Every structure is written in C-alpha cells, then in structure tokens.
C-alpha cells in the first residue's frame, strides 16, 4: 500500500497494515522501530486520524504473537539456527549475557516487564523457552505484558499529541524520547542485580560468553 509519510492522512491510511508485522518482527529483531510506530498511532489518534483502541489492540496481539514465536523457537531447542549467521551468533550470545544478569528469579515478572527495556523482550522470551517455562504461564504473562506495553506506547503517543498540539510526527518523536529515557533508567536498575547462572546454558556449551 502506498504510504506518504509526510502527511497524517498517509500514515492514517496505512498504519493498521504495518503494526502487526513490525511489532511481531521486533520480537525477533529488536532494532525494528515498533515502539515508534505504536506511539505514532497514539499521536494520530489524538488528531482523530485513527482509532486509538484498535491501534492498541493490534499492538497487544502482535506483541503476544511475536513473543510466542520466539518462545516456541527456543523451547524446541532451535536456537542453533541463529548460529548459522554471524549476526545470529551475536544475538545468541547477547541473550545468554542478558539472562545471566537477570538470573532465574522473578521469571514471570521478567516476561512481563522486560519488554520495557531495549532488547529485553527477545532475551526474556528466548530464555523462557530454553528454561522450559510452562507454555500456559508464558502465554498469559506475554499477553498481559503485551497489553501493558501497548497501552503505555499508545497512551504516550496520545498524551503527547493531545498536550503539545504539535504535528503528529513531532509528538511521536517526543514520545519516543520519553519512552527510551524511561527504558534506559529501568534497564540500569535491572542490570544492577546480578542473577544466578543463566538458564539458557545448554549441554556442551560454555556457561558464559
């Protein structure tokens, strides 16, 4: 679908198409700017261009779906697929390091909260799969976490759009900046806690990278 990103009408016509693939893709490849897209949806909703509730619902469902894909991938011990590429090995090693810091404690809390930390969503989902967290428990936590994340992101965009009265793209940038700042602060707090041995260590692998 053609999309003129310079106009609110262009975004409003296509944002529904992009939300699901980008939010799902972000679960596997964190650099995908799904947060910016969902925040933009909130800013557009403040201008009456899109439906706020539909944007939030689609983002929450896509977040849950992406988490479940990563979880099942690692639950079935398919992490070796990443090792076929150099970038995949770096991602795999990064997952080990992230979970080694978090440890085994507060597993369900980490599934819900890690998505608010840059890169935390992938790490939490992959570690939960390898650590054999129950599928039902993970699904419920991923669903709750996705709902909270979508509410936060769309609400942030809607709030900045409603209060600043700036063009939607400016409100989106402000929202992204605030979200990143809060995410970094949360990340610093979390990573100060040194966890136990990483649950993602597999037979034949060194325990740490």
From TrEMBL:
Main location: membrane
InterPro entries attached to this UniProt entry: DedA-like, VTT_dom
A Pfam match: VTT_dom
Subcellular location(s) per record: Cell membrane
Membrane-spanning ranges: 12-32, 52-74, 138-160, 166-190
Keywords, ordered alphabetically: Cell membrane, Membrane, Transmembrane, Transmembrane helix
Membrane topology: Multi-pass membrane protein
Domain of life: Bacteria
Domain VTT residues, every copy: 32-158
Family: Belongs to the DedA family.
Annotated protein name in UniProt: VTT domain-containing protein
Organism (species): Arthrobacter gyeryongensis
Species lineage: Bacteria, Bacillati, Actinomycetota, Actinomycetes, Micrococcales
